[in-house]
Amino acid sequence: MGHFYTNITLPCPSRERIAEELQKFRTEAFLSPVVKGITVVFDERSEEREKVLEDLGASLSRALECSALAVGNYDDDLLFLGVYQDGSCKGRYAWVDSLDLDADLEPLNTDEEFASFLCEAFDAGGIVERVRALLKTNPKYDETSFLWALRGYKADLIMREGKEAATREIWGILCRRLGTTRARELWDGLWRDPRPEETQHTWEARFAVEFHQDLVDALDLNPYAVGAGFRYLEQGTAWEKEIGEFIRVRRQG
Predict the structure, then answer these.
(1) Domain extents in the chain
(2) What is the model's pTM?
(3) pLDDT in tens, 113-129
């Protein structure tokens, strides 16, 4: 099992103000120590549904009059990123493992768009190109590895459910990931015997938490966001030595 956590990074140094706003949502949360004027919110309910994470990010950006970066790491296969300002979503992005066949990548911004939104939100306009280059390391671009995984899944699916059912499902996965035009181009090749170079993948193990760390380092954000969520903090499996410096926001009413 990989990491599973959500959190929201806010360029707001007042943990008291943040706690005040969170209490209006009647939720449980932790607030990280402030680093360079930035605080990280670890909300309990946001780990249950992505919509809650996005809604909270938007609401906090409006109430605190600052940007918000919502992050959801789902088993280290998918890292969702959302930027919010003035109560609305400015940009959405997803880092996705090339072997995650079921990832739904729409509707999201392009690398170029999201890098600009993200850097603007944290006054880091001078490193837009660096962030764009980082986003280009997204494994979703590794088509060779994706097709390698799809071949293996296809063979297993045929054995379990038959060729007709496998054909429908494989077509759907291919279209969601690469689009209908590219799916048509690759379709026949998926059903013939693979060439030698198609029998192994080029994918190297890399996890969403590592990409999250790289992004935090590039933007010089609060490091407490990486690898930590409400449940990890509650269970003492993240930042256990520093937990005394966190603030616990209790549910009111």
Answers:
(1) 4-140+208-249, 143-197
(2) 0.80
(3) 999 999 999 999 999 99
